[in-house]
Specification:
The protein is mainly α and 160 residues long. Helices cover 74% and strands 0% of the residues.
Amino acid sequence: MEKKTLCAQVLSSPTHFLAFGFGSGLSPIAPGTFGTLVAIPIFLLMQPLALPWYLLLVALISVFGIWLCGASARMLGLHDPAGVVWDEIAGFLITMIAAPAGWKWIAIGFVLFRVFDIWKPWPINLADKKVAGGLGIMLDDIIAGFYALICLQVIAYFWK
């Protein structure tokens, strides 16, 4: 699809606009990284919430993402469009569950999530290849988020 047409489609459709991370997924290079960057201000807004409320909101964002990413992909006629980055937003928010406060931890969480999202160790790679639709788009990033969450918590435990 021509870039100009895709841009117009994303900016005119609420479904695409959200799925494309408020337009960040239109980046010609590393759309997943830009989508993860968009997750940082969302995390900063959510960070003051009590843990149960944070978890509930992350769960809602993730479940909504299954529908949203699937709908956007279907509307574009693509399996897993690179520009659909709502999954990166959800994955980063999972990474940051109960994270210590401070920019250092946001940066570490960002790097850990991107490493797992790009590297795709088992079972992330399995989910990426074998699960279709909105669930398939979301699942690999959800698992990457949990891998990064575990690593972030281990680092935080030992780095005091």
